[in-house]
Each structure stands twice: as C-alpha cells, then as structure tokens.
Amino acid sequence: MRGNVVGPICMLALAAWSAAWAQNVKITPLGSHAGELCSRDRATIFEDPTGVRILYDAGQSVTGAEDPRLGRIDVVLLTHAHGDHIGDQKMKGLDSGTCDNPQLVSAAPNSTTAEIAAAKNAALVMVTPLANFIGRKIETIRGKPTAACGPPESDLLAPFAAPCLAIVQIGGTRLVKTSGASKAVEIATVPAVHDSTVPLLLMMEAARKALEPDNVSFTLGPPVGYVIRFTNGLVAYLTGDTGIHADMQTVARDFYKANLIELNYGPNALNPEGAAYAVNALVQPASVIITHVNEGATSGGKVKPTSRTAAFIGLVKSRPVYPALSGKTMEFDGAGKCVAGC
Ligand SMILES: [Zn+2]
Ligand SMILES: [Zn+2]
Asked: Domain holding 192: CATH number?
C-alpha cells in the first residue's frame, strides 16, 4: 500500500522538477573573446522558455549580422546611441585582438544594430528617435520602408516576417509572444542617467558635414534601461549605461521587483562603491550579472584579482555576482537564481 502511494508521488515530484527545469531563462553574453569578460563586451541574448529570443545592445563585440553565435533573434533592444551600443564598429573576427584591446573594423554606415535587425527580421523595441534612426538604416539595407510591428496595445507575435518598429517611450511596455505560447514576455523601458549622442560616422554626409566643425552630434532621445518580465517569473533589470539614480529603487525594485540585475559598470559612470550601492541598497536583486567593464576583467574565465571588476564584486553583499563570460549560457529560474552554467 505504502509503495503504491510513494511511487506516484515520486513521479509527480520528478515531473514537477523537470517542468521547472524547462522553465529557465537562458542568458548568453556575446563578447569579443570566448569564455572571457573583455573591455568592449556589451551584447547579451536572452531566451525565454517560450522561445522568444531578445538581443540586448548589439554593440561592437559581434562580427555583424553573420555572427554565427546570434541564431534566431526576435527582438532587438538598444538603450542609447553611443557607438559601443549601437555598434559603429564590429569585431574583425571572433577572438581577434586581445581581451583588453579587441580588433575592430568600421560598421558604418549601417551599425551592427541595423545590420542584425534587418537580417533577422527583428522587432525594434526602443524609444522613438532611436527606432526611427535604425528603421531608416534598415530601409536602406532592404530597399523598402520599415513598418510598425502593430498597434501598441496588442501582443507582438514572433517570429516576424520582416523587421519592424515597436516604438516605446520611457515607462512604456511591449508584449512579445511566440505563436502557441499562453504567456507573453513583457519588455519595459525604464530611466537611465546618461546621454545618447550618435557617432558622427553613422550619419549621412550632409548632417555630418554640418556638425563636424563644432565637434558635436545629435542626441537621439533619452537613454534608457529595460526591465524584462519573463514567463517563468524572472524579472531582469538591464541598467543600460547609467550612474546611480533613485529609480533603481522606486522603479526596478519597488514596482517591478527585479530579481536579477545586469549592470553596466562603465568607469566614467560608476565607481566600485557606487555600483555596489546600486546593487546592495537600491535594487537588492537575487543575482547580479556584471558587464560593460571596459577592461579585460578575466583570464581563463576567472576575474583578475587586481581588476576594478574584482573590487566591485568584493563589495557586493549576500548575493552572487556573475561576470558576463562570452558564449557561456547561464540559466535562471523565476526567483532570479542561477541554476545552470554559472
Ligand atoms: Zn554610453
Ligand atoms: Zn557604453
């Protein structure tokens, strides 16, 4: 009698465990050098359990649309227009140059963001001026206008037949779903404290010539971060480039209840103490991914003890910090805990 009861319960537990296992979000950094966290690394791919695949800030550490690591991309996010995010340059080849100083070539006039979105038929979830700027580049690449993805109030259904614009303002959200999935991934834009001037080399000649004498450029709307609510419960706060700001607490923690932060640790915006304060006091996530470190932070996949990345990690309390190692897929459960690949 007892065996008859325990058996099915064990089977149920096993089924629940394997269902939970399949419910992880896969996060794969695409950096310049396999297995390391390097100075130009920004790009990250997020894959929801329903299959929605999101590229966050294509940047310079990819080889362009042909980069074999990209695979299918449904959504392209872009936090601001700076060259290291929009991708004014790209890798000459995977692993070319050194981790401190990767070898790059120009990606002008298209940018890696436009190249990839055009090739992958991706939806661009970004603020209006950025979406319009990238949308025009995609139009030039494809020879036809880049249309809106659909009305803002309806779910975006991936995969898409053509690249499209899903314009948002700060605070705005878009829902993206694969056909057949019962739940959608929610992507929200949130504030960042930074700027968003576009590299002159990505502008057409007339505008570039007019601005060059003054050594200034256009600002393409406000810089943003993103909060992504995945279908398994994971809430990832992607800071974008930013200094410390109060919305890290009020928006990312209090409202969205982010349980994972991917922190951009640019040295001209955050020092180790500031970055640790953002994590320990303001956002208080379950886990931290650190990227945009502007140094060759690792050797053999281990953080160098004398790096500023190590200084930050030493100040973070009560939660793990994972360096965004290129090509290493980490899996996170709905509570923000890394359950594989960390
Ligand atoms: Zn920036
Ligand atoms: Zn940056």
From this structure: 3.60.15.10
